[in-house]
Design a protein that fits this description.
This protein has 66 residues and is mostly beta strands. The protein has strands at residues 15-26, 37-48. The chain has a domain at 15-53. Strands 1-2 form a two-stranded antiparallel ribbon.
Length: 66
């Protein structure tokens, strides 16, 4: 059961370990925009999730209904 709107769900959603795969400048062809916006592409290495959020009987699947 998820959290009600406006409340805080006490279960941790998890966190990820990632490495930067690339950076991409947006508007690099424009002198006015160059250097203002940078997209950071990351590669997820590992995700840590509370066991209560996993599908029953599956150690590597998150239950979307929880």
């Amino acid at each position: 059961m998820g959290a009600a709107m406006g409340s805080v769900d006490p279960r941790p959603l998890g966190f990820s370990e990632a490495v930067v795969a690339a950076t991409h400048g947006v508007g690099e062809d424009s002198a006015e925009l160059r250097g203002f916006i940078t997209l950071i592409e990351v590669r997820i290495q590992r995700v840590h999730v509370h066991p209560d959020l996993l599908m029953e009987g599956h150690i590597n699947c998150i239950d979307p209904d929880k």
